[in-house]
Amino acid sequence: MQTLIIVSHPTLADSNAQRFLWESLPAEGVTWHHLESVYPDGQVDREAEQQQLLQYDRIIFQFPFYWYSSPALLKQWQDVVLTEGFAYGPDGGRLAGKEFGLVLALGVNEREYQAGGREGFTLSELTRPYQAMAKKCGMVYMPAMVVSQFDYLNDSKRKELLVAYQQYVSKDTEASLKTTENWFKIQLQSLGKAGLSEENQQLVEHLIAVLEDNREHLDDLAWTLAQMEGNQLG
Amino acid sequence: MQTLIIVSHPTLADSNAQRFLWESLPAEGVTWHHLESVYPDGQVDREAEQQQLLQYDRIIFQFPFYWYSSPALLKQWQDVVLTEGFAYGPDGGRLAGKEFGLVLALGVNEREYQAGGREGFTLSELTRPYQAMAKKCGMVYMPAMVVSQFDYLNDSKRKELLVAYQQYVSKDTEASLKTTENWFKIQLQSLGKAGLSEENQQLVEHLIAVLEDNREHLDDLAWTLAQMEGNQLG
């Protein structure tokens, strides 16, 4: 899996959180793309950005949560790059099926983002514009990853963060596994219709059956695991 | 009442909707502040913007709804101007009590902004970041004004839009009336404590009583009006 992390931060060098995330990156499969470094004049290159996006399976927006949204340059990137005919609309849908994630760095404790908290709204509410964007582009929206008040985290919490971040940017999700399976199934089924020999058609049907058996087995395991975790907690 | 309309649109001259709104402005009490004209280089002047904000009772953000948010320059404006110590935090709260409005120009029919519609989320959901901003600044959030697919509106609909816009930018709301009354009451009450002569204290108490009577009378009228509208509709 290939992941593109689109980072927007106007003063990246001053951010301990962003430096830590950068140092936590896995060695392979991940590209770090800091917009303010690439475009210091704010002139986003639509063609280059669109071509780049097509090469990745997972697209992540990573930024400090300024006024409940991204810094301005990432918004500019959205408006320039995600055009009708590319991201949506007739002949669009070029990002459909890719995964979309958010890595949000908060200056305020995450607990404040709830009814009655100082910020008053949940992060799920405040990130609706990104959910709507993913929906319009046909992308699979991942639960956001939140880095809350990084400078106050102790070493143990930072190690947890490192692992969580590595997984967020590189680990297959249940959604990506299912997407891959479905992709194989569709490919195999279209093979079956393409005038294969009877022997090969049987092989294809067999492969599809194996995929479906595996999926059932995985779902069973996930269910059992959830029960065990429930028992431990209860 | 003085209203500041902060307009953000990267290609304002090409927008029929924005031209129409500009031509609809009342002659007095409203300032049109187009960010891309004032700051073609994107360098927002914090000090000038903050001083300007203080002179107005109602602040409006007006923009085309690009990717469920504003164009980038308005976001830049928020991040530069609405600083801790001015808009919020210790010694902040300088915008508290002002009214905050949104004028959103949509390229898509407003009906699509609902569960099951093509956009999938309501405008109230998608504008949560502005609601949270108003809350943090202690501003009174007005229901948003929506201009949906302006180019398709006939003359009659455009006339309705003109009136609705003039009212949105200049008419006292129930909230602004109550705010004004409360402001007077607090002023009058603090006068009463400031060692006035007994005669003047009686005058002040009389004025407060008149204000409260007026408010009760207004509330009664509003209730009666709502009943009548209900009967007409039913």
From TrEMBL, chains A, B:
GO terms for molecular function: electron transfer activity; FMN binding; NAD(P)H dehydrogenase (quinone) activity. This is Putative NADPH-quinone reductase. Residues 1-167 form the Flavodoxin-like fold domain. The keyword Amino-acid biosynthesis does not apply. The keyword Methyltransferase does not apply. Gene3D superfamilies: 3.40.50.360. It holds the Pfam family Flavodoxin_2. It comes from the Bacteria. It comes from Trichococcus patagoniensis. Keywords: Oxidoreductase.
